[in-house]
Amino acid sequence: MQLTSVENLEQLLAGQPGLSELRALLALLLSQRQVRSHCLHAENLQSQRGRVYRLNFSAGGNTAASFVVKRLDPSTARRTELLAHRWLPAVGLSECAPELLGIAAEANGRCVWHVYEHAGEGALAAEKPDLMRVRVATEAIALLHTRFAGHPLLAETRLYGGDFGIKFFAANLRDAIRCLDGMNSKSLELSMEELRLRDRLRDRLADLLDEVPRRREALAEFGGPETLLHGDLWTTNIFVTATSTGLRARLIDWDHVGVGPVSYDLSTFLLRWPAGFRPQILEMYREAVGESGWQLPSEEILNLLFETAEYGRFANRIIWPAIALVNDRAEWAMGELAEVEGWFEQWRPVLAAPKEAVAQAS
């Protein structure tokens, strides 16, 4: 899509709040770069639900500036601002994330726009792992985890972010059970099949709630020190690009940054790869954190910790459709609850048995 000037952003972002503030910020950033004559090529990054755009400005036929603009709720905006301007710099990892160039808050406080430098191309491709690039990414993740372990700023991160330890697991189970119990109203007119789905989910969550003490003990003994977590380590959020000094990894989309054990991040990261490659990638992480004196537990224990993280996420995904069904009679809600049940049924350990892993890699 081609736009003649920043003034025409409404053509791309129709209905989005805070456009006048965003337009003023972009004009300032372009002025600082002495980009006076320009046209704008804008790409809606569809995977981000219509709130993230890549904007390319050109002058004289050449790209003069490239930004990624992202619309955030105020709490997420504050959290990611602190990450970029305070937390990462505190441990010397500013380059682990794209530079936050400017912030534009809508006057009535509904949203905040962040403008970032464009991280470039080079998102990791999980389908065909390039092990050299995977190693660079894995080492960057390990460096993030080891640098922040026991850091005083974790208290601030927990205040503005999330807690992804055993509290995340237990609280999501309790909240999800409470929300499923709220689906008892006769006014919902649930079918027998829908009621059975609700009951199956509730029974599964109740069984997991009974396991909280065992899983708490495992995390306490084997989870390692609390540290800062990215919170959403999909390969699409990890870029590895070539620089004059070699390959460099950058992590994007820190909306879910929080505090907890490394197993929460590591589970998400490993699950993005074919099962046969996961032991090799885990070994890369073991080697990287080993330089700081860390030792990871056995794969059996890691599977339990990974399962705890994933089941906590599954429970969290039950809460929101259940609320939407009870409060808003949302027609899509039962479909999402059925999808979560499918995740439980299809769950397999993150780290397969050695023979199985070899077979899947071949």
Structure at a glance:
The protein is an alpha+beta fold and 362 residues long. It starts with a strand and ends with a helix.
Describe this structure in words.
Helix 6 (192-210) crosses helix 11 and helix 8 (262-271) packs across helix 10 (299-328). This protein has helices at residues 19-32, 74-90, 131-148, 154-160, 166-181, 192-210, 212-222, 262-271, 278-290, 299-328, 333-346, 354-361, and strands spanning 2-3, 39-44, 52-59, 62-72, 100-105, 112-117, 162-163, 227-229, 238-243, 246-251, 258-260. The chain has a six-stranded antiparallel β-sheet. The protein has a three-stranded mixed β-sheet with strand order 7-11-8, with helices on both faces. Strands 9-10 form a two-stranded antiparallel ribbon. The protein is built from twelve helices and eleven strands. The chain has two domains: 2-117, Phosphorylase Kinase, domain 1 (2-Layer Sandwich), CATH 3.30.200; 131-361, Aminoglycoside 3'-phosphotransferase, Chain: A, domain 2. It is α+β, with helices and mostly antiparallel strands and 362 residues long. The model is unreliable at 355-362 (pLDDT under 50). It starts with a strand and ends with a helix. The protein is globular, with a radius of gyration of 22 Å.
